[in-house]
Amino acid sequence: MNISLKYKVAFSLISGLSFAILNSITNYFFLDKDFNWGIFGFNLLFFGFLFGFGFLFLMKKSTQKLMKKIQIELVKDETIKHEGPANLLRGIEGVGGKLLLTNKRLIFKSHKMNIQSGETQLLLEDIKEAIPKKATKLFQNGIRIFNNAGEHFDFVVYERDNWITKIIDPQHMP
Q: What is the value of pTM for the model shown?
């Protein structure tokens, strides 16, 4: 999972600006200090860079460790076509784990750091539709999958259009 520079910069600016504003408000009301553009600029740049690049780097490393620990058993003649970290929305919890697309199934298995856990499997022949869904108002990284029974499953993934293409049209997969 590679995070683009555009995403890192956007995350840095949002994080840095949020921290700088909150810090300025805290200083003004609780420490009776006047607004200082120098401190605001320092907070924006330093903490923006720290959160935007440092935090994302640490999250990438910890996600890689979690993903390696998740083992999914395949059935006979089943091969992995695509995999990556994902969240499966179950009620109000975004259950973190690994999403695996094989030549036969779409499998989600949670990691151990969730309240809800387990494995969800959908046979490819039972998938009726996979459509884009907004997971949040800022990031368009959600997928809603409908099965033939009328149920839907909401996932949050990285590169959702790639996932949708591979789920809907397995012939595009290598």
A: 0.68
